[in-house]
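Quick one, tokens below:
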């Protein structure tokens, strides 16, 4: 998105230059250099990516949440009521859904649906020569392609995490109400929503989303200059994004346990 004077212009993204540490550092430097004249385009790109990743991804998320949440509610809620451990089980389920399942499920769906699309799109810019043309004009590919997607993915995964939590916990609330414990479960949900659990969901969702966009963009920009490289880049980017989600989740859980 930068142009004009070539002083401070970005260096071409040669394949040998790209590794995760370098890529993150380069993206941060590009964010600092983002010119005011590019803010409008940046915002439009972010909004369009959120529309595709979050808004258009809601039907798939609702389907997955319903397939997961309804059987869970129908099987666990009556059983815990019969065993007399409803309170403990409810606390475990609410904590598990809000802190772990919501961000992870939302992130994995974004990887499959949007992360793969980003890798393929950016890899195609190498094949078609679009990226080389932008660099020749002095446009920073990281500002044009990567930064808006990092922001959009962070926002989208956080929003989808909250939406997943709402659907699953709504199903559990209905099941608990039919079992006679609706008031206690509602009180537990209110306590969790008022505490740090929801904020943890948002933070984890944003972290997962930013990492997914980073690895997807890195592999897309690192792809070779022929069409055969596109599916290879998609495969590599998808695997790396999956690894990032599970590894980051494990590290955050360990930090929370040690804190």
């Amino acid at each position: 998105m930068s142009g004009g004077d070539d002083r401070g212009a970005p260096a071409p993204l040669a394949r040998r230059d790209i590794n995760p540490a370098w890529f993150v550092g380069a993206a941060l430097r590009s964010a600092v250099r983002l010119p005011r004249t590019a803010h409008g385009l940046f915002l439009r790109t972010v909004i369009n990516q959120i529309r595709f990743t979050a808004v258009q991804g809601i039907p798939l998320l609702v389907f997955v949440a319903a397939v997961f949440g309804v059987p869970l509610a129908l099987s666990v809620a009556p059983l815990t009521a019969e065993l007399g451990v409803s309170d403990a089980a409810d606390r475990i389920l609410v904590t598990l859904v809000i802190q772990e399942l919501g961000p992870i499920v939302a992130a994995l769906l974004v990887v499959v649906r949007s992360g793969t699309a980003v890798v393929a799109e950016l890899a195609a810019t190498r094949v078609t020569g679009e990226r080389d043309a932008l660099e020749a004009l002095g446009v920073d590919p990281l500002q044009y392609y990567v930064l808006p997607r990092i922001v959009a993915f962070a926002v989208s995964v956080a929003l989808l995490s909250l939406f997943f939590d709402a659907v699953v916990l709504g199903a559990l609330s209905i099941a608990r109400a039919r079992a006679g414990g609706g008031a206690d479960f509602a009180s537990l949900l209110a306590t969790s929503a008022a505490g740090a659990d929801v904020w943890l969901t948002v933070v984890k969702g944003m972290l997962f989303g930013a990492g997914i966009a980073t690895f997807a963009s890195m592999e897309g920009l690192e792809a070779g200059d022929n069409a055969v490289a596109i599916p290879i880049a998609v495969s590599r980017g998808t695997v790396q994004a999956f690894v990032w989600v599970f590894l980051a989740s494990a590290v955050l859980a360990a930090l929370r346990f040690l804190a």
